[in-house]
Amino acid sequence: MHTPNIQTGKWRISRRSFIRGAGASLALPWMDSMALEKSDRAPVRMACLFMPNGVNPEAWTPQGTGSKFELSPILQPLAGLRDDILVLSNLRNKASNTGDGHYVKTSGWLTGTTITKTTGKDLNAGNRSLDQVAAEKIGHLTVMPSIELGIDPVTTGVDTNVNYTRVYGSHISWSSATNPVPCEINPRSAFDRLFRKKNRNQKQSGDDRSVLDLVLEDAKALRGQVGKLDQQKLDQYLESVRSVERRIEADEKSLSAGENADPAAQKALVALNERINKAFGGKDEEKQLGSMPRFDHTEHVRLMMDIMVLSFWTDSTRVGTFMFGNAVSGKNFSFLDGVKGGFHEISHHQNDAKQLEQYRRINTWHMQQYAYMLGRMRAIDEGGTSLLGNSMVLCGSPLRDGNKHEPRDVPTVLAGQGGGTIKTGRHLEFDKDTPLCNLWVAMLDRVGAPVKKFADSSGALPIG
Amino acid sequence: MSRTNPTSYIFLMAFLAGSVAAATPEALEQEFADNVRPLLASYCFTCHGNDKAKGGINIEDYKTLSAVRRNPKFWKNVVHQLGEEEMPPEDEKQPAAAERAKLIAWLEENATRIDLASIAKDPGRVTIRRLNRNEYNNTMRDLFGIKFLPGKNFPADGAGGAGFDNNADTLFLPPILMEKYLEAAGEVLGSVFADEKLRRRVLFVEPGDGLDKEGAAQRILTRYASFAFRRYVTDIEVERFMTLFRKADERGDPFAESVQLALKAVLVSPRFLFRQERDQPTKDPYRVDDFELASRLSYFLWASMPDRELLQLASKDQLHQPEVMRAQVDRMLGDRRSRALAEGFAGQWLGFEKMREEVRPDKGRFPEFDFALRVSMYREPLEFFHALVQENRSLIEVIDSESTFVNARLAKHYGIDGVAGSKMRRVPVPAGRGGVLGMGAILTSTSLPLRTSPVLRGRYVLDELLGTPPPPPPPDAGQLPADDRQPDGMSFRQRLELHRQRAECSGCHSRMDPIGFGLEQFDPIGRFRTTNLGKPIDASGELPSGEKFTGAGELREILLHERQQFAYNVTERMLGYALGRGVEYYDLPTVYSLRDKLVEGGYLTRTLIHGITESFPFQFRRNEAIED
Questions:
Q1: Is the domain covering A45-197+261-447 a CATH 1.20.1060 domain?
Q2: Confidence of residue B58 (pLDDT cuts 50, 70, 90)
Q3: Closest partner CB to A218 (pick from B173, B264, B269)
Q4: Considering only residues 376 to 405 of chain A, which have any Cβ-Cβ distance to chain B shorter than 8 Å?
Q5: Tell me, what's the ipTM?
């Protein structure tokens, strides 16, 4: 009856076997009829949401601190979630206070380091990113160690103004200092990758493993014949082959994540699948240019967020990142009332009241989407605690003000109680220039990947 | 080229200036250390040093003269900034006039001129290079004859080096891509084996007629692994894949399925997914072998694998023979696969690639910008550049041309009568157009969603066409309103001119903006206009040199004076694309010699293409040096 679950072997009972035994008419919320031992707690999940181009600094910081604070204009969409968030002021990402206005801020946001100025040759972000440190430690417990979602394709080209490859502005996740992890931007591919049953029977899985074993050997042989930089590339290959092997193994054990899930999650998966189909509907013409369909921007963002929520809910992964856009995103926000123009242009507001107001509206839209995701997570029950209660959902921008590009007092909100370890409902104002990496240390602690130090951290940020 | 030459003001570049002064290299190094670096330390390092590197610029990093000389373009810019007194900024400590003059003179003499003869011959080294998404699609197409794009949902490839997405160093292989490679290999083989014609092409021998299963599989795998790995494979290598064939065969899978399994491994093998070139046992540069040369040619000109003819010539060790290779290059350019050069190289260089996805004019303001127009705009520069290659026309047509390509949709957009259908065809350019600066794709992709941007258009000319990008704006630089429909009655141009009055802005904007003003006759989606918001368009501009002009036509005339600089730029870009890496200082002799050949040969497109394929870095490589 208690099928060991691939994810932890412990914290969840296979829903199907449970229902079969108890009678499917019992529409039980998640495990509420079973007493949980301490070690059976639902796991803590961690998401990092990246906003490009900073915020209107005058409309961001709440009035008052501690639990008596008033939401700022930009944070208004979070009003219904006030008790589930922490607004964190005065954090600084010191290492990214160099180089250029955007690139180092983007790649360096979750790494806490400075990037190497290059058009490609010595590409180096200085460190692994927060999410990848977590994935390395806890990723083996789930089908996917982590997921990286986004909206924009990697921005191509080299910024000849400043001589940086735009690769830096398109990635916040780094699996090593030299390996950026790209975002999946296509909701169909992202969904299928996580949830669609891979129609692999045992024979096919076995065949794929044999294929991968063979090419692994091939790559190792090749590795011995090439130069050092070439070896780095082949190491990526080797690492990626191993990760696909792990995925096949996980699939074999658990069937697909969707199979294992709560019936409510199952239903949500079906509904999301249909919404994705709808979003793609009638967009065949785009094939002529081989490009992605032009989704409604808000719907695109929400689809990606729902995919992340479902991947947490089904415990397909516990670590995720999401990019609202690449650095310097010029996304046209004219679909919002009172906004005329692209995000990046507007973010250079020059203290012009009209521009600042448009900037605020764009920032507010970001918070609306964030609130949508948090609301979904709060509505999902995991045996007395909501999914949000078991999560940490960070939303922030690596620069405070698009007009200044300073990585000081960077806009940062953390939502969710991290499995009861975070006292939310507060605005915490830290000492000026407290390392942002202290927050990363605090988050890694809670997600089960503790570190003593992260880049320039000086301790764990007190958020409990 | 010095500060006193007015055109240098606009078009910064490192000109060839013969050999440097007679002082010994050691003496010059000493002079740099004793007299020059201290001045730089006093006036530059505070903002551009190891502690703080504003704008990503670190002058402290240049510890020796030889380090300085590796980046003449950068130092040319430093000299320029010093000369114009743009640096140090007004509110920082200023050098005495004599110090400034000395610094400028010394750097000009010793740092910014390129002594080609002193550059050691170095072909560079390209890192092992993963096929990019586009190359993967094309290669699969040519390998099996499939008609779909198996890499369609691969993550987009970033770019680096010379700015292209075939740059080895910026092609990564994250786990998500490996998953997709495995899936795509299955998908490709599934569709090949489901199609009678394609299947028979792969299974060109079958067991029977004195050939057992083993033997037939071996022949198939030898052929397909050779194609896939772009060289002849050894029996030992084939044997590796045969183990998979046997595994399936022994459990009773049909012959075709057993072959399919082995082929799947071929298609996810690093030898297929990466283009690798072998080290040879020497410290000196060496010629790549003929198979490697075949791949260099085919991925440059076709963005795909070498075909049978190239591989056959390679196997006979004949491909590198000058007359053989020249004939092959012409053959390849005549093949329809050469469209990849227009798509990949010109698309990224000239930026019309952005039309596929990135460019999004505001739907409310420009409802006429529909999908058909987007596609037509994308195709205009594509057909145009492809024709430059096909008909071996002059590259100068990129700046100015008497004809272009339109279909009915684009003709209507441009106001040309008498063009029907969706097919693109050559027509004389309408008044005011000609060259890429008159093309919808370029005019639209250098605009913002709601207005034109003279700054972006000016920048486009300086950067993409002339290869002289302006330095970045300061971090607190303003942006003009995102929409030009502002209620306060000030015209957009007035606003921009106001903006330019800020001292720290004027240096670059006086170069960029006037060029953009000259293109103001074209609206944000590239339509000709004479008025905007009820006021007549002012398309006049004055360059810092004093040259005045009105409208795109006169602007083109001025740009034509810069054809040598343009030729230098296109040479550098195409060489970078061909090599799959950034163009480094040791490539400068190659770039200059190719540029000279191009100019002498009347700018004909194939002169450059042939020149590149015959060049030292294209045909040679070296082992990894210690400092790599």
A1: no
A2: confident
A3: B269
A4: 403-405
A5: 0.87
